[in-house]
Specification:
The protein is of the alpha+beta class. Helices cover 34% and strands 22% of the residues.
Length: 503
């Protein structure tokens, strides 16, 4: 009987369940969006219960579409929006508050105080991260500071913290009835609470933030040949399937792109945009605004590290154009609108909606549209919106080239925006390197499937996975150096206009 691998892809805007075969081909997929909650400017929340209900629905939906049952799956992997943080009662499974999303800026004051006491990089040597609202640790502190019941129960050991893969794994493996409370090294490295070198929670930082260690999940390998638990016969799979693979979404895409060699890089174009460079089994501290993070760990093998450039707003800027300005009806409409003009008309859009992430790390920044004249129309604005993602990526690549000492020669890409030809061509033009899209573009879910499959022996090792990666399309640069330099100079001027907006 043919066996398949299932992957839960719990993203920022939706949850999917994808079933893959042994060659990494998609057999079936089901997807459900969840509500985006904006209680105040800069605040972003999700309903964890809604996400768990959607997870169950899409698992059943994908199995039904494929005419399969849980018994047809060898294992389950999970990939997730990384820094989004939830706290819940271990006896009831009830969240004390909505999940605080990675984009949320409510922890600005907490981060500001931490920076004033010891500088933005005070934890960087241990954690690889600057102090920023992006990461989970300050979110956990905010929840404890503002939800008295959560704080009381956390001190007693009755409240559990986790990012979204922890929440999903806990429910999949039993919930209040013995569910596994775990997080993999890639997600743990995004909390600002884990020591990069020991792969353990750092007690000094926990003490400083007032976070009880008993509330935190056990840190495990991304691909673990000792399953954390099994799905329940009365659950959405109606059978006992090992749950043994988990990766943060960007690290999962790195694995899905088979970037297993030192020096290989990929960029994912989703809600945000994330460029990761495999740096091998030793962490490299960035001197140019990138972050050092765990790429993955396979069972008991040495962990693999990467440098990452994180961009908060990429596809979300297209959504903003659609939902807030009603300039387009669907995300796909932006491409023909951008094609209606020859260039950006001198307009730049810098989407610092949540401040600027790498390589700037400026929480005081806010978004701007610069260079407006009476000549400009909505086509120019549409093109500026697409170009913003490519320019932000160039900021990251320039920093990465400096940190690594090796110039990027090609860029593997994935995510929803890679089917926009204008964006991909402009990305190649502005970087002056080939941009390569693989045939299997669902690399985030595929990476989680690979992690789970490696754990149970569906694939022998990472070398066995490389044969399934193949090129779908390559974009080559056609832009002159003069035009490239002029365009990028305009972008840097626009970025300057975003700074010092918030006191």
């Amino acid at each position: 009987m043919t066996k398949y691998i299932g992957a839960v892809d719990q993203g920022t805007t939706s949850t999917r369940f994808i079933i893959f075969d042994h060659q990494g081909n998609i057999i079936s997929v089901d997807q459900k969006e969840h509500e985006q909650i904006f209680p105040k400017p800069g605040w972003v929340e999700h309903d964890p219960h809604e996400i768990w209900m959607n997870t169950q629905d899409v698992i059943r939906g994908a199995l039904t579409k494929a005419k399969l049952t849980g018994n047809d799956l060898s294992a389950i992997g999970i990939t997730n929006q990384r820094e989004t943080t939830v706290v819940w009662n271990k006896h009831t499974g009830k969240p004390y508050y909505n999940a605080i999303v990675w984009q949320c800026t409510r922890t600005h004051d907490i981060c500001k105080d931490l920076i004033q006491q010891g500088g933005q990089d005070r934890f960087r040597e241990k954690t690889g991260l600057p102090i920023a609202t992006y990461f989970s640790g300050p979110k956990k502190k905010w929840l404890l500071d503002h939800i008295p019941e959560a704080k009381k129960d956390a001190m007693k050991g009755d409240a559990l913290f986790g990012t979204m893969e922890t929440w999903i794994i806990w429910w999949l493996t039993g919930g209040p009835n013995g569910g596994a409370h775990v997080t993999d090294v890639s997600n743990a490295s995004r909390t600002m609470l884990m020591d990069l070198h020991t792969l353990k929670w750092d007690t000094e930082i926990l003490s400083l933030l007032g976070i009880p260690i008993q509330s935190l999940p056990r840190i495990v390998s991304s691909s673990d040949n000792n399953p954390w638990g099994f799905t329940l016969k009365e659950g959405p799979l109606n059978s006992q399937v090992p749950v043994c693979g988990a990766l943060g979404d960007q690290q999962s895409a790195l694995m899905g792109q088979t970037c297993f060699e030192k020096g290989e890089a990929k960029n994912t174009y989703g809600t945000g945009c994330f460029l990761l460079l495999n740096t091998g089994t030793k962490p490299i501290q960035s001197k140019h605004g990138l972050i050092t993070t765990l790429a993955y760990q396979i069972s008991n093998q040495p962990p693999v590290y990467c440098l990452e450039g994180s961009i908060a707003i990429a596809g979300a800027l297209v959504q903003w154009l659609r939902d807030n300005l009603s300039m387009i009806k669907t995300a796909k409409d932006i491409e023909p609108l951008a094609l209606s003009v020859e260039d950006n008309g001198g307009v730049y859009c810098v989407p610092a909606f949540s401040g600027l992430y790498a390589p700037y790390w400026r929480q005081d920044a806010r978004g701007v549209i610069a260079g407006l004249t009476r000549y400009v129309n909505k086509g120019h604005l549409a093109r500026a919106v697409l170009e913003a993602t490519a320019y932000q990526t160039k900021d990251i690549v320039d920093a990465m080239n400096k940190d690594s000492g090796v110039a990027l020669t090609r860029l593997k890409v994935d995510g929803g925006m890679v089917f926009n030809n204008i964006l991909m061509q402009f990305q190649s033009d502005i970087l002056n390197v080939p941009v390569i899209r693989p045939k299997i573009s669902e690399t985030t879910a595929l990476g989680a499937a690979y992690a789970a499959g490696l754990a149970v022996g569906v694939w022998e090792n990472t070398d066995a996975l490389k044969q399934y990666w193949a090129v779908d399309k390559i974009w080559e640069s056609t832009m002159s150096n003069e035009k490239r330099e002029k365009g990028y100079a305009g972008w840097k001027k626009a970025v300057e206009r975003t700074l010092n907006w918030i006191d």
